[in-house]
Amino acid sequence: MVGPTDTAAVMIAVAARLRRELSPAQVLTDPAELLCYSYDASFESMLNPRRPDVVVLPAATADVARTVAVAAQHRVPVTARGASTGQAGGALPVHGGIVLDMSRLDQVVELDAENLQVIVQPGIVHADLNAFLARHGLIFPPDPGSSRMCTVGGMVANNSRGMRALKYGSTGDYVLGLEVVLASGEVITTGSLGSRALQSSSGLELTRLFVGSEGLLGVITQLRLKVIPVPPAKGMVMALFDELEQTGRSVVATLRAGILPSAIEILDSSAIQAVNLYRPQIRLPSAEAILLYEVDGNPPSIAHDAERIAQVVGLFASRVEWSTEPKRVAALWEARSVVGAASGQVRPGAARVYAGEDICVPLARVPEALRTIQETARRNDLTVVTYGHIATGNLHPAPVIDVANPDEVARVQLFADEIHRLARRLGGTVTGEHGVGLTRIAYMREEHGGALDVMRQLKRTLDPLGILNPGKLFGADC
Ligand SMILES: Cc1cc2nc3c(=O)[nH]c(=O)nc-3n(C[C@H](O)[C@H](O)[C@H](O)COP(=O)(O)OP(=O)(O)OC[C@H]3O[C@@H](n4cnc5c(N)ncnc54)[C@H](O)[C@@H]3O)c2cc1C
User: Fold this and answer.
1) Going by CATH, does the domain composed of 105-229 fall within 3.40.50.1820?
2) pLDDT the model gives residue 177
3) Which atom of ligand 1 is nearest to the CA of 171?
């Protein structure tokens, strides 16, 4: 990597060369434009924006390959960026250099409906892909809360999950193959050249290696994704609880009854309050916690499953209602879909920040985690709203703070550290779906032990110059 004294000169030369080899309009160096690329959704970037030196807007794989090859020759960092909805600072160019804005590579290349797959460019927005697929009766099932903003390339790079991970798994479960630009600028295809098979045992699983690699091992330029038929109907069960402990028990009892809901979401009392302030017409009843169970499938099966869940959960909850009537189902689900946006409402003039926002704990420890989150918030004198994907133990505490108050900022950082350590103490992980990025590097050694060294060896093998998204996962040490 270039040193600080000659960085500016090198970056001017790199920008000039990229303008010649791509086109002038695809290379941005205006400070005002670069500023827009200094942030993602993380609290970290709000506190410490990281400005790139150059932004490249590729229009084809060849542009990405050229850019990475030029970066390798000049040994300057390259950070891929989708829609920058990441909450962990993953797309921030920590050491400056080039940001590759992948959002213009947003086309469906081919729908192969007969073979249940679609080939897309990485910059396509998740909701746009599903709107396209819906016209053909198909769906790409991973379902992050950021669906209307995030790119599919970003989802694969972060191995995103979301509300329906219990039944449908992670984004990675739907990736059949990838086109990737390596750190040398070479382009490879994983998942068997020209294959339209839905599974393969051929060779090492390179596709899986790039899934969740957060832009550290290569830049994804095309994706072959598995799709499934859209489930024709949905049902919902809403259960109110007076005791947090009963929420975990009711989830286990549901699964043991042989039912696999498409989602089970929890709102604690603070999240219920937030939803009611944000959308008073939803009128959620007050409770220690609410669980929302979603079932999907054919109409007779969803009615059976919703009724059965209501029976099982009724043993633990103070009140249960269920419906398969589309309007009521949508109304019940609205409470969950607005909770992220609603969080900021619990404290006028304050903002919700993403810090310690993505722990994942064993199912049996969810009530303990929820209680400790509340207690940790009280001890640090913070307002924190908590909700999450209870069936996978993935909890999203949402601190709501005055970001202009340095004392509160310091307290929220302490809170986030305590929450990350809580997750590990309870036998979980510091991130269930948002990734490591910049904000969780400190926990990697404790979480992975010697496996972190193997990850570093892989990184050095695929990116010997350390130009791809440097400063992440291993910190400065790579
Ligand atoms: C309101 C809100 C709700 C959210 N809900 C969820 C949720 O339910 N589940 C969930 O999992 N996440 C969620 N997220 C987090 C985030 O939206 C996801 O991680 C998303 O997949 C990131 O996509 P992106 O396009 O914004 O990627 P970015 O933030 O731009 O990038 C994320 C990472 O991917 C890398 N990257 C991006 N594109 C490429 C590429 N083409 N090749 C290689 N690397 C690349 C970047 O370098 C970076 O490390 C949420 C975020 C917000 C703001």
Assistant:
1) no
2) 98
3) 11
Q: Is the pLDDT of residue 4 over 60?
A: no
Architecture of domain 232-436: 3-Layer(aba) Sandwich (3.40)
Any ligand 1 atom below 6 A from CB of 86: yes
| Protein residue with its CA nearest to atom 21 in ligand 1 | 155
Which pLDDT belongs to residue 478? 60
Per-residue pLDDT of 246-261, as tens digits, reads: 999 999 999 999 999 9
- CATH for the 4-103 domain, from 1.40.20.10, 3.40.50.10800, 3.90.550.10, 3.30.43.10: 3.30.43.10
Give the pLDDT band of residue 121 (cuts 50, 70, 90). very high
Local confidence band at 340 (pLDDT 50, 70, 90 cut-offs): confident
Asked if residue 61 lies in contact with residue 453, where contact means CB atoms within 8 angstroms, the answer is no
SS3 98: strand
Atom number in ligand 1 closest to CA 221: 41
* Mean pLDDT estimate for the chain: 96
CA atoms within 13 A on the CB side of 431: 25
| Domain boundaries for CATH 3.30.465.10 within the chain | 105-229
User: Could you write out the DSSP letters of every residue in 29-61?
Assistant: --HHHHHHTT--SSHHHHHS----SEEE--SSH
**Range(s) of the chain covered by CATH 3.40.462.10:** 232-436
Cβ of 268 less than 6 Å from ligand 1? no
pLDDT over 70 at 5, yes or no: no
Tokens for 386, please give them.
């908590």
Max Cα distance, the chain (Å) = 70
Judged on CB neighbours under 10 Å (0-12, 13-18, 19+), 277 is middle
Whether ligand 1 lies within 6 angstroms of the CB of 125 is answered as no
Local structure of 404: helix, strand or coil: coil
Is the Cβ atom of 154 under 6 angstroms away from ligand 1?
yes
Percent of the chain having pLDDT more than 70?
99
Q: Report the candidate in 299, 271, 297 with the shortest Cα–Cα distance to residue 284.
A: 271
- The residues of the chain that CATH labels 3.30.43.10 are 4-103
